[in-house]
Amino acid sequence: MALLSYTQFLKESRNYNVTFTPNDLMLEGGAYGHLNHPFEDMDLTMQDFRNMLSTTINGSFEPNHFIQEKTDGQNIMISWKGGKLVAARNKGHLKNAGENALNAEGVSQMFAGRGDIEIAFSAAIRDLEKAIGALSEKDKNDLFANGKKFASVEVITPITQNVIPYGQNILVFHGTKEFDASGEAIGEDKSEGGKLGKLIKDANAAAQEMFFVRGPQDIKTLPFPNTEKRAGYYNQKLDTIIASANLKPTSTLGDYVGEMGKNILLEIATADNIEIPVQFLGNLVKRLFFEDKSYTVAQIKKDLGPMTSQWFFDIEKTKGKELRKRVINPVEILFLELGAEFMKNVTAFLTVNPTEAAIKMRDEIETAIDTISTTGGEDNVKKLKMELERIVAAGGLENIVPSEGVTFVYNGKLYKYTGLFAPINQIKGMLTYSK
Questions:
Q1: What is the CATH number of the domain that holds 174?
Q2: Bridge partners (DSSP) listed for residue 413
Q3: Residue 429 located in a structural domain
């Protein structure tokens, strides 16, 4: 099954307003957990989305938004406990103030036999121990509370490059999280990433044996070119989403998913000559589109009877994932495109040479696309087509920037824009894991 090249695909798409089925969202690594895109938070309202659009398009992020570059490295959480550096890669390491957290030797053992990954993490832990060890006891206790608080660190080096070619060995702090005895996060302070980097710099401990240790890259934002026109464009997209589900400004993303899910389920039922009793529709939507299994199999059989319940179970099993993606698709496209355009308006990235890095990324991804389209199996070709549609929706490869994205705080919660990074990463991953 052959696929068009990227250039041919772009020509045949004719415009950027294509429809696609988004792939599974990528999870952040290590103990840090998953960081939400705006289109993943079911509690955000349509007015929240409107505010995000305005802030992004007008470049009006303020210091309390903590807008910073999201880095494409390997994550690890570190703390200072009992006079030494400890590290966490899973929840078990975070429990009871890092009681079972790893020391430097434990980190090396965890990654033993993994080549460059082992080299990078082993060197990173040694360099972090020296850098943080140079701080005063008061600063270490304020930042880490003897293992109750952990800092998120991104390990970045050319030998373990993922997608972004940074061209340097750096360890980047992204703030701290506080954990309770069970290892659950109970607080987060984004400002402490910058504070930790500054303290290390002031202690002349930033330049270590392999890595340069630093705080996050703060992003300076400017209004989009043609601000008024772009605001109209994105607000019209949001208006279409709101109108499609008959929502209000106070309606949440969860309300949108519920309403669209109901419409889709009824549409399928009508096509299949199935009648869903109205009193059970809400519970079915909750189970299918929110994956809430509190509406049990036994109860569904009792409420719907054998024929209709079996129809629903077949839909859930064979089409559930596809339908959930279909519902969120318009909202994801909106923020995918917004994020890509926003990042194209940013210049202060961590890469040593942003222009060369962007060119290299485009060359690599075009090679990957050509390879998969000519030698990949049917499943990979189908997946590639889907990722190309995502790229087109975000403006095409011309919008590549040498960054994974940006993070920002909105109403006390942390979100991310990733633009083209997500589909590019998926395509490169297809090539890597097919070898």
A1: 3.30.470
A2: 410
A3: yes
Structural domain contains residue 1: no
Q: Is residue 85 part of a domain?
A: yes
Task: List 36's β-bridge partners, or say none.
Answer: 415
pTM of the complete model: 0.76
Backbone angles phi, psi at 217, to 5 degrees: -85, 110
Q: For the chain, how big is the Rg over CA atoms in Å?
A: 24
Q: Look at residue 391 and tell me if it is in a domain.
A: yes
Q: List per-block mean pLDDT (blocks of 10 residues) for the chain, which spans 435 residues.
A: 40 35 34 77 97 96 87 92 94 94 92 93 95 96 96 93 87 94 92 95 96 90 93 97 97 97 97 96 97 96 97 96 93 92 82 81 87 83 84 83 87 88 83 58
What DSSP character marks residue 397? G
Euclidean distance between CA atoms 405 and 355, whole angstroms: 16
Whether 130 and 24 map to the same domain: the answer is no
CA dist 15 and 299 (Å) reads 47
Q: Which residues of 304-325 are buried (b: 16+ CB within 10 A; e: fewer)?
A: beeebbebbeebbeeeeeebbb
Domain extent for 79 = 72-214
Q: How many domains does the chain have?
A: 2
What is the structure's pLDDT at 25?
27
Distances (CA, A) of 326 to 54, 68, 288: 26, 31, 12
Report whether 101 contacts 87 (CB < 8 A): yes
